[in-house]
């Protein structure tokens, strides 16, 4: 009899087995996620090796100060602003053209290139290094993001005429050696953790949110349903005692 009781006490319930299995899966996901970060840092820190014979690979287009601003006293100031909002575009030809359909025909038009907008996160980040004088040259704009499904705040430079586009050959002077085993392991782990279900577990268990882009709605206490029910109950109770 005692042996039977000991045997039944060692048997685990279905709920306990499911909970243990779930924890094992989460541990495996955490381990793979941590390993992916380690591999990413290893790949990033691989040193660049200079080429013996540099070669050209298309062209690059970017913004520079125009001649008028370059000769002014504020040249250094606007050069610092440009470093924070400059953009680079690459093309196989110097023309920077793209295909566009117009009236049923495909034509080539020039690619549009604009200065970078500063996000609200960078605007409030002291590490970004925007001085009070630089902030005076930016205008706050709000735009709806279909990906995040909410309005996003950006800051645009209000005097883009101070910069002009310049095209230069895109020269390849260095290369980064690839480790086949490292790349294979990184690709396998990324393929695993990029699955939709796995990403949901990572966001909820590691990052602490089931949906990082979902903005939590602050509920007003007065408009709360439970609070309203309590008010109505208290009012009815007071009227009841008044009638007595």
Give your account of this protein's structure.
Helix 2 crosses helix 7 and helix 2 crosses helix 8. The termini are far apart. The protein has 244 residues and is an alpha+beta fold. It has 2 domains: 67 residues, no CATH class; 127 residues, no CATH class. Strands 2-1-8 form a 3-stranded antiparallel sheet. The chain contains 9 helices and 8 strands. It is extended, with a radius of gyration of 30 Å.
Order of helices and strands: HHEHHEEEEHHEEEHHH
Question: Largest beta sheet: what is the strand line-up?
Answer: 2-1-8
How much helix is in the residues?
40-55%
Instruction: Report the C-alpha radius of gyration, rounded.
Output: 30 Å
In angstroms, what separates the terminal alpha carbons? 66 Å
Largest sheet: 3 strands, antiparallel
Structural class of the helix and strand makeup?
Answer: alpha+beta
Indicate the overall shape.
extended
Salient structural properties:
244 residues, alpha+beta, 3-stranded antiparallel beta sheet, 2 domains, 9 helices
